[in-house]
Fold:
Amino acid sequence: MKKMMLFTCFWALSIIAKAQYFNDEIKALYQAAIQNNDTVKLYKIRKEISAIDMQNARFSYLPRIRFGATYTRLNDDIVFPDNLQQLLMGTQKLLIKEKIGMPFNAPLPATVPLQPVEPIQQKNIFKENISGEWLLFSGLKVKYALKAYQHQQNSYQFLSEKQETKLWLDISDAYDKLALMYESDAIINSSEQVLIQQTKFVNAAIANGLATPLERKKIELAQQKLEVKKLENKTHKKILLEKLHQLTSLPTDDLRRISAQITPAYFNTSALPEERPELKALNQGIEAKKVAEKVALTDYVPKLAAFGQYELREKDLSLFDPKWAVGIKLQWNVFDGLNARNNARKEALERRSLEVQKNAAQEAIQLGYAKAKYDYELATDKVALKNKEVKLTEDTYDFVQKQYHNGLTTITELLNALNDVEKAKFEMKQSVYEQRRSALQAADISGTLLQNL
Structure:
């Protein structure tokens, strides 16, 4: 038991020295995958959209200048009433008489021309103008909107980090499984070499009358089983290479050249877990909804803006149309049918929904973290036990081989011992794979995976 503990401590110290979770090959695969991942691209696009929304909110305080042109046709000219027109014509006659020195009650000669009374507005109206408006006070709507968009951007950033973490795990899982297949091939090749040596021994024994052809047939059967395992491994490698190709878009021929290796991973079970990206994203979403409530209620706050207009064409202006005008307008939404209030309530309910999701996620993470630590500790202990098991099967095989060569046991016992060695070695590599997966899972659920890249 003491030897077991010493081995475990020595092994743990050796992998602490290699605390990084991913080697250079996995990192290269990840760099290819991150450029190819649609979900990461989607979050990046959404973040850019949010940045544009923030820019639009800031630009609300920039003046809006517009050029406009209109043509209007009325059913008739707009003129003064008849009695007023008669008054204006009479006044015109008096002014003419005064100018030429005629008594005011003398009739005006018919030869004297009179100016007709111009209409107030002709029926054909064509206008060209430049108008502008400048928001001076938005009722705090712009201020709160900027905060909401900032929280939204942060949320997309954390969601992107979550997807990046998942991508690290997907890449490393396919890579580690590929490494496991390579290790299996190496074990099979080693067993094949042993069987070749045993075949030579059996052939010599048969030639000397010390063995029967049946023993050679049993070795051939064992070799055939190894061929079947090699075919299975070949198929599994094709599937894993296809998955890596799908994740990275790298050519399969390039992926075949990677020398995948699998090593244990270390996770510090005494370290305090950190907040996971999805929780950070939910926190930002909650803050965004809090601000969105305030944005909705700013509809009840007065807004102030300056405005102006300049007419570029004077010909069709009426007697009452100004050439230019400037002013300040105040808009105060006193009652909007409770629309702003209901929008604020909707944002509040969405915030509460996110809070419920956060509480559920926290409970799941707490339970998952405890389980991940226990799984990691168990997997780490299993690696040490499997290493010991490999040593025992190898010692057993050496003993049985000597016994067989001395004629004290059968070829069946020897092949069984060799099969035990092969099985123990593969199970040991399988345990390393499981230990590595449990360490990465524990690091992921604790929020520390990306700290040891």
About this structure: The radius of gyration is 44 Å.
